[in-house]
Amino acid sequence: MSMTTSHKPGASDELMRLHDRRVALIRQAANEARDADYQARWGDVLARCADWFSSLPYSPMLYREPGGAFRCTVETAFYAIRLAGGQKFGTNLPSEQRRRIEPQYNHAVFLAAVCSGLDEPYRHFTVVRESDWTEWNPAGHGALGPWLAGSAYALHRRAQALPVERMRTALLAQNLIGHSLLAGYEASVLAELFGAINPIDRPHANESLVHKVLRQAVAVAADFDRKAQQGVYEPVQYPVPAAIHVAAAVQPVVTPAPSPASTPAAAAAAAAGAGAAASGTAAMPPAGAPPTDAQAAPSVTVPIAPPSTAAAPNATAAATPVAPTQSPAPASPGPTGATSADSSPKPAVSTKPDQQMGLPFAGETPAPVAVDPSAMRAPAARADASAPPPNFDQVLDGMPNMIREFFRALREDVAAGTAKVAWTDKGLAIPKRLVGSFGVASDTLVEHLRRRGLLVSNVQAEVVLAVRAGELILEREA
């Protein structure tokens, strides 16, 4: 054995909060109407797993950081739920019975995924509690967190890992799940559930659908962590979108109207026009009175004042509304700075309101600008490029929703430039590691494509799609 330094236990609420985004996605996939039902059937099981593993790593090769065993559990459960979404359980049963027990199969996939790794840390490590130097045995002591009771522990790696005992894992799973949660399950569902826990890593005869889904989920999770350690790519994150992004996706785009004065020169011209209009208004005679000579040919000298002193009269003049029929046209200034002698006030012909009325003045605090969530949407060109073609439903007719979502998501990523696919002489080549990054096993994709004649070849590193299927992801150049 090799001994490591002292380790601290991890609280279950801290582990749940660390993986809150993955847990939130599991909450969405559970599709429970009431929060109490979700907590009883899904959330409490994850919390008990957090208590079971505490801060243990999963194995020396995979998920080997502190708390890696619980991270492996959450990710495997997430991939299993994603893979089970497009499957049909109990196809040999009558329709009424199948609708009744299909939710049991979906929950059984989750339970099998959560419980498949319960025995894995014990196979590779021995845990010694430092308070009394007692070795942990999960079959007798139960969950590690309550058994440690806050005490630090030492971790020893076994010289040789214990053999895989699927019966021991099923026994630990029965203690973790409890009898009350499995009381209403059908016998066939229970048989497939415990037969799929800690699945065999290769297909075998008479393999159940629950076992197949779970085997693929375990393989995807292990492959992701292995490639992340090698630096091929980082672990894929599936963040839950914020409420403002959801609002931006459903609200229409509102284009704000252009400002009347978008440049400083235009704003200065509008302010000068408002000052001239105010001077003309002050010189205008009362209604029904004849204009005098001084009013008919005024000689005005406009003093140049600093912006801070000129802001007040401009604001006062703009705050006084002028009727369109009584606002005289401002006299055009001559070369010497005075107005022409033969110019007289004339009624305004245009009924367009003064442009300066809607502009903020110098010295005033502009009103706060409201944030429009719809402005955060992607440009229209990108949305059009990633939109599915018209024959999308026709080519993928009969495909499960999981495969349809894969084609949509891959087309969006290719249009955004975050995913790389290439056309060959035979068809569109897609790397298998890219297929796995969307939560879809390459074997599942190949199986559905082969049934409908959309597969050209399946080699070790890539899958080649037929032309009509490849054009759903990337348009082929002429």
Features:
Hypothetical protein af1432, four-stranded antiparallel β-sheet, 21 helices, 8 strands, 7% strand
Structural features, described:
By secondary structure, the chain is of the alpha+beta class. It folds into two domains: 2-248, Orthogonal Bundle (Hypothetical protein af1432); 380-470, Orthogonal Bundle (Arc Repressor Mutant, subunit A). The protein is 47% helix and 7% strand. It contains 21 helices and eight strands. It has helices spanning 12-18, 20-30, 35-53, 68-84, 95-115, 120-124, 138-141, 144-148, 166-177, 187-196, 209-230, 243-250, 264-283, 293-296, 307-319, 380-386, 392-395, 401-416, 432-436, 442-451, 467-470; strands at 2-7, 125-129, 134-135, 153-157, 422-423, 428-431, 455-458, 462-465. The chain has a four-stranded antiparallel β-sheet. Strands 5-6-8-7 form a four-stranded antiparallel β-sheet. A hairpin with a 3-residue loop joins strand 7 and strand 8. Helix 10 (187-196) packs parallel to helix 11 and helix 16 crosses helix 18. 27% of the residues are buried. The model is unreliable at 276-344, 347-363 and 378-383 (pLDDT under 50).
